[in-house]
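Example S7 (structure tokens).
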């Protein structure tokens, strides 16, 4: 089994601070993830001035009168910021990539050499955007929050028509509520997507905690994406549904353990580590009480007890009725 790709989603949890973004990269490196991901956007090209916030954004920012435009504008990273983050990631030996939210941002990410792009759930019905992404990148990760199978199929067709091979596309099951209620996770949909399109699948998680992404790995996710933050109490729209550094590290550790647990041959046979327990845990046929030489073995004078170093109880029927060739005291292993 190939290793699950773990994406630590820094997103906008830097709160517009380059220093915080560097710290987030350090956390991702320490946790042992494969990628750290940010969000690339020009607010004026992505959001109208009067667009309203989502309910979770109002709840998490405690600023009901602030527009979505004003909230997001404060979280925007400049092109120069991106170049500094990429250089820092290179120095720290971790992969950088980003989600683009507008056409200019797609061009910028391609121009600085990225070949992989993340398509956010909100753009899955954005035809000009999808076509542009297909023309600029050779690898795509597509999030599918709020979408139907038909919408996924339409987006996938655009990528395939644009020349991106199916082997270079991964579709992530996702729910865009922050945090996602457990009853709405619908993790089996990830398997449905994979079966429907015969394509690699993964899971982008917005639940609280780490249980669901771990379960997704056990179900076959090839990619796990999870938001993380320096501190859940920081102001901002995504912090509360993100993992703190120790939680991110625990998730990575758990995923690696699940991968080990899934790495066996699949055939049922004793493992090397348990072979030493076989003779201790299994049982043998023993004397239930004193048995004199010449006595017949019966249900009344033999029993089954540990250890398993004698005759297997599976041979019970062949022992019953035989004549004892010697004296056996209570708990002696029967020998024929």
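Recovered sequence:
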């Amino acid at each position: 089994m190939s290793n699950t790709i773990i994406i630590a989603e820094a997103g906008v949890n830097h709160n517009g601070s380059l220093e915080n973004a560097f710290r987030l990269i350090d956390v991702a490196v320490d946790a042992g993830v494969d990628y750290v991901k940010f969000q690339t956007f020009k607010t004026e090209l992505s959001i109208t001035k009067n667009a309203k916030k989502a309910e979770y954004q109002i709840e998490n920012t405690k600023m009901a009168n602030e527009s979505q435009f004003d909230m997001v504008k404060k979280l925007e990273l400049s092109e120069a910021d991106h170049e500094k983050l990429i250089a820092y990631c290179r120095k720290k030996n971790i992969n950088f990539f980003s989600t683009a939210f507008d056409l200019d941002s797609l061009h910028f990410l391609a121009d600085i050499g990225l070949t992989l792009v993340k398509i956010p759930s909100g753009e899955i019905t954005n035809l000009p955007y999808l076509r542009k992404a297909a023309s600029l990148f050779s690898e795509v990760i597509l999030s599918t929050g709020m979408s139907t199978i038909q919408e996924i199929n339409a987006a996938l067709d655009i990528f395939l028509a644009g020349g991106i091979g199916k082997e270079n596309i991964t579709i992530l099951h996702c729910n865009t509520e922050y945090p996602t209620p457990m009853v709405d996770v619908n993790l089996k949909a990830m398997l449905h997507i994979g079966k429907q399109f015969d394509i690699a699948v993964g899971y982008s998680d917005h639940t609280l905690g780490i249980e669901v992404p771990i379960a997704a790995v056990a179900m076959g996710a090839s990619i796990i994406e999870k938001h993380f933050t320096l501190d859940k109490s920081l102001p901002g729209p995504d912090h509360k549904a993100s993992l703190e550094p120790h939680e991110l590290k625990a998730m990575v550790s758990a995923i690696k353990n699940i991968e080990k647990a899934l790495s066996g041959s699949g055939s049922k046979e004793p493992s090397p580590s348990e072979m030493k327990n076989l003779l201790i845990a299994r049982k043998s046929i023993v004397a239930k009480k004193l048995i004199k030489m010449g006595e017949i073995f019966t249900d009344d004078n033999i029993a089954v007890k540990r250890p398993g170093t004698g005759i297997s109880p599976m041979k019970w029927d062949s022992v019953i009725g035989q004549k004892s060739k010697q004296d056996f005291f209570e708990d002696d292993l029967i020998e024929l």
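Notes on this example. Strands lie at 5-11, 35-40, 95-100, 116-119, 139-143, 169-174, 200-205, 223-227, 284-287, 302-305.
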